Known about the structure:
Chain A is of the alpha+beta class and 747 residues long. In chain A, strands 3-7-1-14-11-12-13 form a seven-stranded mixed beta sheet, sandwiched between helices.
Amino acid sequence: MTTAARTLERGRVGESVKRVDAIPKVTGEFAYSSDLFAAGMLWGHTLRSPHAHARIVEIDISDAVGMPRVHAVLTHADVPGAQTYGLEFADQPVLAIDRVRYFGEPVAVVAAEHPEQARRAAERIHVDYEPLEPVVDPERATEQAPIHDGRPTAGHGFRDDARPNVVRTIVIRHGDPDAQAEVSVSGVYELGIQDQAFLGPESGLAVPDAEGGVDIYVATQWLHVDRDQVAPCLGLEPDQVRIHLAGVGGAFGGREDLSIQIHAAMLALHAGRPVKMVYNREESFVGHIHRHPAKIWMEQRANRDGKLVNVRAKILLDGGAYASSSAAVTANASSFACGPYAVENALVECTCVYTNNPPCGAMRGFGAVQSCFAHEAQMDKLAAELGIDPVELRLRNALAPGDSLPTGQKITGSFPAAEVIRRAAALPMPEPEELPRDPLRLPGGSGNTTRGQGVKRGVGFAVGFKNVCYSEGFDDSTAARVRLTGTGNGLEAEVDCAAAEVGQGVVNVILQTARTELELDDVVLGSATTSSVGSAGSASASRMTWMAAGAVQLAARAAREELARRGGELKPAETIDVERVYHHRPTTPLDPETGQVTGDGAHVAYICAAMRVVAEVDVELGLTRVVWIGTAQDVGKAVNPQAVYGQIEGGTAQGLGLALMEEIQTRDGLIANASFTDYLIPTTLDMPPVVAELVEEPEPDAPYGVKGVGEPPTVVSTAAIVSALRDATGRDLNRVPVRPDDIVGLS
Amino acid sequence: MLAVRVELTVNGERHEADVWAGESLLYVLRERLGLPGSKNACEQGECGSCSVLLDGKLVCACLVLAAQADGHELVTVEGLGQDGGLHAVQDAFTETGAVQCGFCTPGLIVATADLLARNPSPSDDEIREALSGNLCRCTGYAKIFDAVRLAAGS
């Protein structure tokens, strides 16, 4: 039974505070991006490519145009401005031009009065395709014909890799990459394509204004970068495109790239009426990028005392058809390939390739998930080879402040890797449960497949880490605006910040920070929009708590200074209105030849987590049950502890999904399981209790010492769960998601 | 497109609407009756986010045609609270931190209210089984279990 005291309604930094949006969310009043309505609204629909790779010979819209109640049928020829867009490289067409490069690529859009009319009209668009051989094997992609003309990502300061279909290659050479040691262990590790599978589908409403501009209400992670991509494609000035955050039904990286934004705006501007678009679940699976599938070859060399001497890794990421944020994912996968361990020598080579597979980009963990799965499997293997306890081996190698990463970046802030290892390892594990027991608590669950025979218990452990904030010279600053108004008997405060509330609770971070700094209980949060405040940067990279708190703190302190200057009081209706921009410390790119840091270093700060897992496996049927998870996570400072625990529990569940069940299946580039019937995510029956401990070692540069919390649980849990399955089965299990066939030895 | 007239009693109020025969109950609630609380996460009966009570029985509104619901009584998440206050399950979800993005929340609240109406003191295994048809992508379910236990004890 829960014994929690009632949460606070209006708390300050460090207190568990009820979400400010909780009541509208439990009553059904909260307006998500798919709930919007406007008078005279039309429905948009997207016609998508049925091919992974094809040349478009002709698009004939004439049958669709003439259908009743159809108000717009648009193709690439109707894109008013730039034909392509992208987060880092504008390599993705708004609507396919002469070629489609992935299954589900948008080809045309339609607006009609009813969604079914729009869907039927899209069916009447005739597209003559000439199928091309798809590039689907990332290991062969660099030897096949390029799927893009030119090299979209060349000339951005990256290592020059002229092989076809290379998005980015990073080579990190550290110390003596040929250094030998007393023992060596190696392995090859693979991860399938994971989907963010946020529950709220891509959706939004575009409303034309009377002067050629447009308001777009949408679920996104970064309003201002959406605007900066949308406006050029619409041929409009940035201030003619106003983007407003509608309710976001989860994000996890999958809303960093655009979905409906340009399409809905084009249709609305063309028809002169508001246009709503809502993807269904099948469309959502092709409507956003995914986590990069990876293949990782890794060798660790160590001495008998357990000290790592050299790590050699080769990482191949499949970026799919368009670049999205692949270049940054490549940097993360390579920067963190050696794990949170001090190692004096390393050679890491990481390449991300273009293919005609589903496009990949940001997902919670962002490159670190893939690397963690490999380096932690290696650490267990090394522990077994050396006869050293796996926890002890990790402690002996744990990175600490003052140490350097293989990129040469010295850790100057907090980095309590040893502490999270010790704290996670000290959590008491549950005793083995008696038999017989309810089948719900056996592998196979309500399938009632065993009474306990063939069930073995295993214990796993893993450590993972990643960076907080953007990296390699990116100044992802955050603006906040504070307005104080005299009421006659005190002050009212309003805060504006364009930080995207995606479920993580940044609205509370903003309010708790403002209440703390202003020493006021009554603070109102304005709506997040591009029209009232500067950019907040993206709700991603575990950065939003740090950056929003930093910006609100700056603005609130500036407002208080002005208040003091005016004598500490405001007359009724007198206001103070200040906007401030918070920057994290500067970073610089990795050297393209050596992969070593230049200048200030590539990363702002690091966060780590350790996890112990108890699992049961039916070794005859290959079925699993995760029994218990205990974790300790480095969070800097918990602004809202209840929300921090919630992030850890939820992030752990996504890692469990990748470990056991989640994979986008493709056949020649075509997605075969675009539904929740066939792409499984963890349910109440899959998730065990998660016992989490917070390690609060303040980050010196950050407001209140905060770091971030969203990603480490996802980084570490896939590795930790598979570690437990290996312990139970004695098998290598080098690919996730682990299938029953792998457990029983049929694959 | 073929239109049919449906009459529904939703949260105690009678509604009439002329709908296309292919429209789901979920679409009609959300787009025609101004009740978007029931959510559209999968529209194929896998996620439970559109859970409503149809003549007191828990159903996925996406799997029921509006025309099938003609003449029947519905309760949606908007109709659970009484006298302007929150239902005990709604209050428990806000208290325990069971809400993150909240897209699964309306369906889970309706499903939990249904569970507790049938079984006021469910065991942990009974909670897990009863809510296994409601997907949540944010919370890992821990705080949802806390919410159900809190509501059961209240």
